[in-house]
Amino acid sequence: MMLRTLLVALLSLAATGALADQMKLAVTTSFHNSGLAEVLLPEIRKDLGLEVQLLVVGTGQAIRLGASGDVDAILVHSRKAEEDFIAAGNGTHRTEIMYNDFVLIGPAADPAGIASASSAADALGRIAAAQAPFVSRGDDSGTHKKEKSLWDAAGVGADARDVAWYKEVGAGMGAALNTASGLNTYILSDRASWLNFGNKGDLALLYAGDPVLFNQYAYLPVNPAKHPHVKSDLAARLETWLTSDRAKALIDGYKLNGETLFTFNAAP
Predict the structure, then answer these.
(1) Among 229, 214, 192, 219, which Cα is nearest to 44's?
(2) What is the spatial distance between Cα 61 and Cα 260, in angstroms, rounded to a whole number?
(3) Which residues of 149-167 are buried (b: 16+ CB within 10 A; e: fewer)?
(4) Whose CA is closest to 222, among 68, 9, 43, 4?
(5) Which 3 state secondary structure label does DSSP give 15?
């Protein structure tokens, strides 16, 4: 009787997928806010029998989780930080998966006049000159790193970004966009998060197109030589899937209101 009960329990677990292999993947809030995870994860589970547990954080925190061996792989978007991660021996390699771009969002009335800017740096320079309210994620994410590099290119150092108009919220992309919407301010966002954001209020996409706003996402497995407990075999299986034609069709096919959120560019 006990054996039969155990067998029934095991069959029930298998039927619900509880016996699926499991791995931990740290991903950026921008990736999660885009809604793409909700498209990919069920298909990964169906194709690979793999349950991918997401830890949704900024790129900086994702890299720290990988460096400490708390996840099996990371999916982030800050190339310099990724290359430093590999150079420190924390990851085995870096594989590009997909890209979109960063965009500058702001009040539809555009008081700083960034819609006619000649570059992203010029746009931020105009915001600073007008002292127009700006919300920064302030969380060491890939978006925050990009934003800081753009301020530097505009010649607007940290000391010049006065708290009277420059607000760091220390939050993910969705929360930062909500703050910007509530305060009707400028903000830098990735395009996918903006398109999937439902509380736009009076905000509008005002500036895009500068090549410096290119936004590449890459997959980095954690190095098992440094952290022997990580599930490198599962991380490798996931990477094979993420670079496959199956993933390409799902990533390129993910659209909102007819607009593409990501473009697959993994090497064959």
Answers:
(1) 219
(2) 27
(3) ebbeebebeeeebeeeebb
(4) 68
(5) helix
Given 171, 193, 212, which residue is the final one in a domain? 212
How many structural domains does the chain have?
2
pLDDT tens, position by position, 169-211: 999 999 999 999 999 999 999 999 999 999 999 999 999 999 9
Are 112 and 185 in contact by the 8 Å Cβ rule? The answer is: no
Contact 29, 172 (CB under 8 A): yes
Q: What is the pTM of this model?
A: 0.86
Q: Is 241 in the same domain as 162?
A: no
- Rounded Cα distance, 252 and 122, in Å: 31
Q: CB of 231 within 8 A of CB of 225? A: no
Which pLDDT tens digit goes with each residue over 36-59? Answer: 999 999 999 999 999 999 999 989
